[in-house]
């Protein structure tokens, strides 16, 4: 532990006294937001009608957040730093709002909330108020890239922001509640991916204020020795700041920040002038122990409040009706001495205003926290360079590995943006396994630990970020995107569920920012889900889950897109398209195994733009109305569907089959539900209004029903998909277990077309025999029948 | 770091030599499973046809797992311990299968896989083979409570198993890949919840074999000093075992296990005879550094394999066609000298067999790993004790806090099972916030850290487990249930998404175990999701997400149940019912705020058993066919629906409204989709076949469409629910933002009944005016209009 010798630096008392006043101003404004409707400067005695009828907000964490903010302002000014503040305890919304108002950022963005008493009154009233601002640090809060409602992601967001931003410092407050979460516990390892030369710095500030909603926190009750050991083990140099007496705490904090920022400067200097050792640096972090609800009421109704869990939300309740409570509130607010902080008109006094940085150096106005301001377009190579040649007579006869081709595309995208240093690829140790390995021709996995002579594809400057934590990948990428850069996340399909909740939170953030004019668009978050449910040969049931897209489809339609490219050319088109979009979340599902190729690049483009289309070269409608529609979405379902079509066409040549393929799943929804939805006539033109539709879908069948339930022909949709039957088996056996295979599809088709059974000769018996044959063959030989393995579409 | 002095104990070389042979036998069987179809004892030279056509499995982690297993066998025998093995690297399936076969457990459960050459051949062939066993440690694997396909949960499962099992030791292998995940990184703190007196012990063995699929692991590249610091920081005493030379490693491992188990014994003795200090003990853990793919091929085709990532799956591929590869395989397998390990008939040689424990002391036969064998029924109090009196004339007029009443029920359940010590409550710091605080009348939060004089509801013996990590709560509970106990998990609704993926994995485990006769039923995992989307006044959008049940509904219907009790009596009935079930996952969604009460306990029982029913006392059908069905699922939707019904009835007395309430969401599905599904006639009897149905649903509306799409009247369902509009606002404003409020419901009803608009006078104008009035009122006053707050159902 680094203890700060009291005499080491000489920060004048007068400076610290000013900081204390600044802090009091922030605290005053925070309390005001939670409690007051009116009388913002307490020029009158506090009356019931000045108090909000519903008291909503979180005081406990706020004074500590304000304390940190005030001291960071000093550091920014002294060192002329470019800094943003990631507020892990997002519940401390009032604090972030207060500070950005004090420094002027707030009123610039929201002129109605002016820097005077009238603005202060509105600032107070709007907080946690209908039509106002949320209680949390939210997209509406200037200077924030982080909501902090769902705890766990502060530190990954901070590191994501710091990557490739060498001049940026990200101060990141981690609450001791949040520190108990899994994602946060793993996040500390992020410094092992931070290159002091090309990346910025993250200064984690672990704020131990002792309590969660109702009980102590684990880390706060650990002794200093264990804490120091833990964070040294994580690779940091911890600095402790502990106490409750403001004057002493201001000195400790200021001196400790000086030490920590000196340490950061030394590390960066050494890395950048080439004098650094090859060892990963030991970055500083701060452990701040301060009382929960610091400076608030010590007791209410005889019960301990300050420095206890009861300070978590509203420390003294019911201040409208309970005179004694209102008196506590008034005494508390007056203890900050508002007249000493604000002038008669409610403006912050100039000597205090002078403590805040200016312009974009203010943390509420730093453009990194509104990344769209800094975003440069991604340079993308022409997709024609990656076209797999698919000639008319050879459809389905040649195979390619779709993700391998996309890997080539990503490799060249990395090269094109190498100078801009604003594109990274993220994935939990699966880039190679997902067949995106071409990227390693031009870059490495970033790795700041020891590199041994026989290691491959590891480097200090790598642009591929791999760690066996989907949480870290997702969080880093979110931080990277929200600060104006571009990225791509490839993941095993089943395990993307690990970040369901992070996806939810990011979608919510996106939904709100899209409605805020001052937040500029940021690049979309694009997932490639591969190593998917139908090809988990090495693993089995635990690795088989296609349900992520079901959750995605619940989100606001302006935010989400879901694609199932059936082959390599469609995948490249979709990938290229997604990387050029902004303010969205794109999910692409595609396999990594060699599969049949169906469309030329030109056809792929037309098909993907339409979202869904008829493959007339595959069907047998001959211009008339079809007897039957055979549709598919997904690469494996398309393969099985095509094989089923061929079986049917061979056996019943006069059967009029229409073949439909869906790439953009949202095309299935009504136009009033999703902007990509096909119009009713367009939908009917594909799926008819009355013919049976056999639909082979990649995931849970219910999603197709849910998306199409408003469509005219919905009652005739018969969807095959994953029905939660899985294990380690052959690829074809997986489809059979789930009745997605060609035989089941063909059998269902025969069932659904009136009178077809009679016309189909011994086809039913043949298909059933094939299933039986398959069953015995795989259990005997351990691989699929040659006729399955070697099957090709016959043009 | 505790270094083991070489001379401290005197384990004879001959004993270690036997262990080495045992280890070789396990390694031999592991390789055989990955590669061989036949020739199990290598009595013939290895030919192409002896090799599986598809080589699937993971060798890399396996020799280390086998090494640990062999040494744990020794410890069990020497100390007569009751021990189970949690295998974090579940990919090491071949190892667990091999060991349980060697000790005889496997053949007892699967007699067909006998302890001889014929059995060995089947053992080999079945692995990762269609119709055989999965490649992972799976439910099919004897002795396991943990799949280990999705990494991150080994340690929480281990602790869950150890709670309230004072005589059990859980050896838990944590792979260094898994150690990078968030959940695992937080899991180390679990020892802060383990009471040495009443709970068993967990011995974590961090297995650093250096590599993931394609790159080094973070923890393996950390130096010993940082590692030791990290784990001391987490509160453990780390013991290092490092090397690759088998003889030396056997001695180190045996001696280190002796030290570690001595330490465990001392800690437990001191805690149990009362001589322990009050400080949390520093439990031992082991850091084992051994080469990945240890004893496998050092190089293949000139490329490093052993001790490198290339040993991860199948170290030498294509052994059928490539003679050189087959030779490498044969040399490798013969290096274990099978004739030295197995007799001529393939049985393990008796001097080796003697190394394994016997009977239920074998880790593959320990009943704790098949918890249903040990499960005692939960004692449950009569629910009539908790009935909220709801008389016919007072429906909807009285209010109660549903979860508060359930808290009373849980309190008494805790008391009834206090002696059995087999019931715990889990939740992320929200037991009190979720209004289940009555449980603290009889127990505490368990807390092994410092307890201060002013702390409340904290104790060493508490049965409420709170930590701000949904991952830990879920994982502990899974481990607790799978070892035969009972539990209850309450969680904020939005944040249960954090454990989506753990839910998925548990549902998959349950689905498989239900089909295995030898796995006895375990108690269901029951969630109470509260502090739900409609009542997040303190928080807002980040805390508003009702989508967990959408994912649950994707799972096998025999495993999942979803309940939306509309009031306290129905909640108590459902809670009581769920706690008595087994092998399922139950999700209950209910609010914690004071809400209207609708049904007496007797009515609640009938209503819940039916799953859905007509509330004839609320409707106005008068025995005829209704003009309209007004349906709801969920407490807030039911309140709004009832208010809408009252508005309509008041304004249009001759309108025939049927009121339907749904408690058991699965009642909506067809009977062929879910066992709780209503029959078609029963469904039609509720919802008619042709009348409009206005459905107020708690969550995303699409789920109702998806569940009912096969129903006759589905085309007339108009569902209101959460449409992703949220923020910090008043309770009623939340419903208005999402058009779930009484006014929108009534307006939609008027729209949907043909001709009704004309009959409704100025009702439409009045409803629209009300919405307008609401809009202005809440933005002015910050609370809902008195007529909303004070609204009561008029009986």
TrEMBL record, chains A, B:
It comes from Hoeflea marina. Gene3D superfamilies: 3.40.50.920, 3.40.50.970. Its EC number is 4.1.2.-. This is Probable phosphoketolase. It is an enzyme of class 4 (lyase). The keyword Chloroplast does not apply. The lineage of its organism: Bacteria, Pseudomonadati, Pseudomonadota, Alphaproteobacteria, Hyphomicrobiales. Belongs to the XFP family. GO terms for molecular function: aldehyde-lyase activity.
